[in-house]
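Continuing the series of single-chain predictions for the mutant panel. This is the parent chain; the variants come on the following pages.
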Amino acid sequence: MEDDAKTDVMDVKRGVRLYVSFYEMFAASALAVSLACGLIMFIYRMKSPAVVAVIVVATFWFKVATMVFIRFTAKRKLGHFFYYYKNVGMSSRRLWSVALAFDFLTYVGCMLIAYQL
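Parent structure:
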């Protein structure tokens, strides 16, 4: 029973390490876009609610477009890395899902922090 718990913890740690190493390949560009969107929100946060709504919508679609661009660029340029992840039992769909979900959460966090400041 104790060995099963250790195995589960080891699998979680291994999975987190794999996700982090995958995200590190394009983290700089993804975080730069999130911070740029947060900076735009910070600059226009004191405007009327209609302007803030337009800024939120515009930065949202900009972030989505850059996430799609990053995904296809990374897939094309770093395709040989996917063999490693596949060999250790991690599907590319799961890697992209977790990485893009985390990236989108950083965008939302940047937007909320910039609006609150």
